[in-house]
Amino acid sequence: MSKVNIKIDGKEIEAKEGQTILEVAEENGIEIPTLCYHEQLSQTTSCYLCMVKDKKSGNYIPSCSSDIADGMDIEATSDDIFEMRKTTLDLLLSEHSGDCEAPCTLACPAGIQIEEYLRAARKGDFLETLKIIKEKLPLPMSIGRICPRFCEEDCRRNVIDEEAVNINDVKRYAADLHYEDYLEELPELTDEKVAIVGAGPAGYTAAYYLRLKGIRSDLYDKMPEPGGMLRYGIPEYRLPKDILDTELAHFDKMGGIEVNCNQELGKDIELEQLKKDYDSVLLAIGSWSSRSMHTEGEELAVGGIDYLEDLALNGWSGKDPGKTIIIGGGNTAMDCARSAVRLTDDSVNVFYRRTELQMPADDIEFEEAKEEEVNFKFLTQPVELREENGKNILTCIKMELGEKDASGRRKPIPIDGSEFEVEADTVIAAIGQNTEAPEGVPTNRWDDIEVNEENYHVQDNIFSAGDCVTGPATVVEAIGAGRQTAESIAAYLEGKEYERDYIINVSRGHWQSLTEDELVLINEPVERERAHLEYISDDKRINTFAETNKTLTEQEVIEEAERCIECSCSYKEDCQLKDYSEEYKAHPEAMVGEKVLFDYDMRHPEIIRDPGKCVRCEACIKVCKEIVNEYLLEFKDRGYYTNVGTEFGKPLPTDCTECGECIDICPVGALDWKSTKR
Amino acid sequence: MIERIKVGMASCGIAAGADEVKDFLDQKLKDREDIEILEVGCIGHCYAEPLVEVETESGSVFFENVEPTEEYLDKILEIDKESTMSFRDERTGREHLKVTKLAGRIDPVSLQEYIENGGYESLKKVAKMSPDKIVEEVKTSGLRGRGGGGFPTGLKWSFLASKEADKKILICNADEGDPGAFMDRSMMESVPHQVIEGMLIAALATGSNELFIYARAEYPLAVKNMNIAIEQVYDSDINVFDGETIDVTVKEGAGAFVCGEETAMIHSLEGNRGNPRYRPPYPTDEGYKGHPTLINNVETFANVPIIFEEGGEKYAELGTENSKGTKLFALAGDLKYAGLVEVPMGLTIGEVVYDMGGAERGEVKAVQIGGPSGGCIPAKHFDVPIDYDSLESLGAIMGSGGLIVIGSGRCMVETARYFLEFTTKESCGKCTFCRIGTKRMLETLERITSGEGTLEDIDFLEDLGPKVIDASLCGLGQTAPNPVLSTLRYFKDEYLAHVEDKHCPALQCNDLVDIYLDQEICIECGQCIKNCPVDAISDDFVVDNETCTRCNTCIEVCPVDAISRVKRGDTNE
Amino acid sequence: MEVIKSLEKDRSNLIKAIQMVQEEYGYISDKSIENISEYFGIPTVEVEGVLSFYAQFKRTAPGEYKIAVCDGTACHIKGSSRVKNWLVEDLGIDDGETTEDGLFSMETVACLGCCSLAPVVSINGKVYGKLDREKLLKIIDDYRNRGEN
């Protein structure tokens, strides 16, 4: 066979006559993506992902089908080619249906692979469950108790019986069971060292993931004990501190994570010095300064977070606050109210200037507060606080809702002449906290630390994450940021550009817009109500700071995990469309248009056909026809509505199980084994 | 003395009622043995159908728009000079009838008449020539493919001629799928033998021994006439050379525009889905069932006998430097004299549209040449000569010859949408860019014509269109965006009006239009109320635009033009 | 499969065979597909694949009178969408549907090649041109009466 000389990306190559450009490129380590080309099958030339440019003619040509010719000059890697391939993928994604990722995982700020850990739990493998969780979240005992459960809000189990899977309590069980005997694989420590200011959730998380990369860190915290908000902001009845101690002890066990308490930035330690002493500094100092009510006499009130901190320092005990009024509607307000309830027989009242619907506190907190007989007064705003005869007199005004404000919420407006006075022994102002950024660190208009959103970098070798960047938010959000910051710092130490994971997701839609028929249910959903934790009795609850509820039992957890309908794509690990789309930064919403709603086919006992995922590469048809010598699949219809069909739409024969070639060759899981999910 | 009466009975004639005229004449003149009544094809003056030609010893006269009545019969029999049709100099002075000179003049299915008029003379000449010489002559003529691409015919023939093979295939592409084009239909209906003669000459030149005519199934009369002609050819051994028979068969398509693409056509002939494939290998190397195969279209083959009748050099005298001979155009749309014209290459678009077609200057916005693969050419460029290269430089293509005149009352965005809808429906669905890309572009155009478009939508079309052209395997995808891109090039203001002002300047897009009844003009005759299919006009003559479907019936029935389409929301002015 | 018996059993005759069956029965049933498949020795699913590619083939029984509304360019700009709407209103069926009495079916087709007479429809292959609403409805009525007699 004669030799042919060509150039690909400027590289002179001698190749055999009759080879395609794609083959030659592959042999020479030049990667060209393709979805429809397979060595053993006849040419299809349909996906056009393998496009290259013939530099002489300027034409784009499909490299999978174009034979090489002497003197060819091919461009296989360039911005133009990248753009064309991206467009190919944008087009394919625009008609693709399926769920690249489960909605629970997407909703989780830490990004935990929830469906996977529920699957492990269902099999009773709780060590595996914990391992999956800890890939994204190092504080599962704590989070298993206090997570606001963004995942459950988006859980598709809601379509079946309007009750999400009790995801977080599965996490709590696995963590409680195995926390002490679980030890991750730890690489040897390097010489690099990071200073982390603030031993709260963000700081600990960053330390953990740095340690998994062999990077040491020293944590500094101004408080006498570590844990930050987990210790000083979240009451004992929600997160017992002995649980927290157990959880944090694990970090000591790992080695390479040093915790230094009673070290306040600007007092005991200086940022400039840390910058010099360490390879990098992470500011994870939280948001601890109570926000002002801007009312006369507000100094008579105690700040919400300050109130909780005092209780914490006192071992969750304190004096009877008497009749208490808490101003604010967030989680801190709930924590203050529910703590006060536990210390007094007088009434505890929450005043909030908007309505119940707009209250930012988690539903569960609001519900439990009501159960504990906290009173709520909505559309009420304080205007003045004064002291008379040892009592606080709070003047309030009634509000009504007006136009929407910048946050999209209807703005409360005072009603003239509606002022009234109430008497209280204790007034707690829990209307939020501000960040106190160290001197010289840039801040934004909300006084939070300004970071590069892509990589959490502040300046020089300083990074920052957690509440001090976002303002007061949830612990799980701080954990998500802490992990990514660790990745970013590690990249920085290696002298690399940190790139956030680019994850694409095509979704069938939010559960509220779906019917049961539209879900791809590989396993028949079990009929079972959601498991609920056992609570200590209400009258006991209001007298103790002991944890309000017990961890589920093993049997309950396994049964709960079985309620998961496993709604993400069975093929997400191997999907070439997903991989290429992430590589080429394609986007499912780059082009919007009709998606043909093909029915998925579950009739075969072992095989699932989901034509909505099909990219019309023809590989399944050809492998069946050309290799297996069966003729079970063929294209039907044409144009946009072309689809792979079977004889009269019948299910595939049962003995297809013995072959499975079409499944192996499908790049996107339009044909897949049901067992991938079992 | 009347010798013969010919009734134009091509599809267009029949649709206009020519069969009733023919029946009527047959009935009334059945005792007149001196008068022969003949069915003929189309002479191209479709606007005048039903058309009757009366042959006398002193020449022919024509009667237009004939009705099956005694009154007309009398006129015909008396050869009433007052009533005969006069051909306009604007047209006759410009057309150049070569390929169509027999169309509509002879009985299409009479071999004898074809031969009497010089038919099969070229074939006789060619049979004595060497294949090389035949190919050379075609090269000399400068003939280029009339089906769209304009590839030099002689060169294409030489590829096949040089192949060593037991079996070579010749296919006549008669899958005239461009909406608005009917040249090939007309030729097959009117002069089927001329097409066959051209094919047989090509067979001798290239050594082909199996010939197919791949015809659209929507052309029953063309298929019928071709089949009759083929039977006559077999009966008279016209297709037998040195004892070897060259087989000719008509194969009917089944309704897929993409099968006009040569590799798709071959797949279809083989009994497969009409998906095109990547070239090379080219059909002349590997075609129908693996045999070397050549494909030319009907008009190209119909040109071939002319070349040998007058000689290649003479043939090449007509036309422009790179485009020789004549071209057939199917004129339709907003003009007075729709029909088929044959003009020499190099005539300007304006001459065809205004002079020959009778379209009114100032009332024409553009022409669409080349159907859904072609582009719109705005009136300001009508001085451009019609040849392959000039048209391409304007973003259009010669195509097969559909020429649609777009009047000032038509919306260019809607026109682009219409063509793209056609190609989207006809995409075979193989390549990603064509299958999904055209669909996304169509959806974008639909948003624009319904008043929901944005400036980003226009950017999107300008970005994706060229990519679809670059990244499609066959001609369908490679040209599908042309109507959109050419209207964006010449009529961007109309796109912007739809997007920015939610206004269709031509008042065509229904979603952007209201119906307005001017009560100052209204004479309260009630015709509109009576005829409105959805009862959208109240007893006091107010149009309820919520109910109205914009069907235009009221506008058409109003005797005083009191009702009109106005910009949406402008009903109060 | 009597109708296709004359055809050589060569795949290149597949489309012709489907055309002949449709000509005979008006549409292609599952049974017909199986018969064609057996006749040519081509897998059923491939026959389905081929026929579903081509717009000409119908998988459901059409009406006695098959109305084709031309949506070629010339017809389109001369108002073929209105022609279609008149039919929708009159017959109560949409594109691709058949009236309950089985008398009429309607479909939109690409160019019928009679552009100079736009707008046109064809009924069982006979082309009617230069239509307006009144003219069209009269034509339909004529067919309807024919059907009743």
Describe this structure in words.
The complex is a heterotrimer of chains A (678), B (573) and C (149). Chain A is of the alpha/beta class. Chain A has five domains: 3-77, Ubiquitin-like (UB roll), CATH 3.10.20.740; 103-182 and 520-561, Orthogonal Bundle (Fumarate Reductase Iron-sulfur Protein, Chain B, domain 2), CATH 1.10.1060; 193-288 and 435-493, FAD/NAD(P)-binding domain (3-Layer(bba) Sandwich); 290-433, FAD/NAD(P)-binding domain (3-Layer(bba) Sandwich), CATH 3.50.50.60; 594-677, 2-Layer Sandwich (Alpha-Beta Plaits), CATH 3.30.70.20. Helix content of chain A is 29%, strand content 17%. A six-stranded mixed beta sheet of chain A has the order 8-7-6-9-22-21, sandwiched between helices. Chain A has a five-stranded mixed beta sheet with strand order 2-1-5-3-4, sandwiched between helices. In chain A, strand 15 and strand 16 form a beta hairpin. The longest helix of chain A is centred in the C-terminal third of the chain and has 19 residues, at 475-493. Chain A starts with a strand and ends in a 5-residue tail after the last strand. The model of chain A has no long low-confidence stretch (mean pLDDT 94). Chain B folds into five domains: 2-87, Glutaredoxin, CATH 3.40.30.10; 111-314, 3-Layer(aba) Sandwich (Rossmann fold); 326-407, Ubiquitin-like (UB roll) (Roll), CATH 3.10.20.600; 412-500, de novo design (two linked rop proteins) (Up-down Bundle); 513-567, 2-Layer Sandwich (Alpha-Beta Plaits), CATH 3.30.70.20. Chain B is built from 24 helices and 17 strands. With 573 residues, chain B is an alpha/beta fold. In chain B, strand 13 (364-369) and strand 14 (375-378) form a beta hairpin. Chain B is globular, with a radius of gyration of 26 Å. The model of chain B has no long low-confidence stretch (mean pLDDT 93). By secondary structure, chain C is of the alpha+beta class. In chain C, helix 1 (14-25) runs antiparallel to helix 2 and helix 2 (30-40) crosses helix 3. Chain C is elongated. Chains in contact: A-B, A-C, B-C. The A-C interface holds A 631-638, 645-648 and C 30, 33, 43-46, 48-49, 52-53.
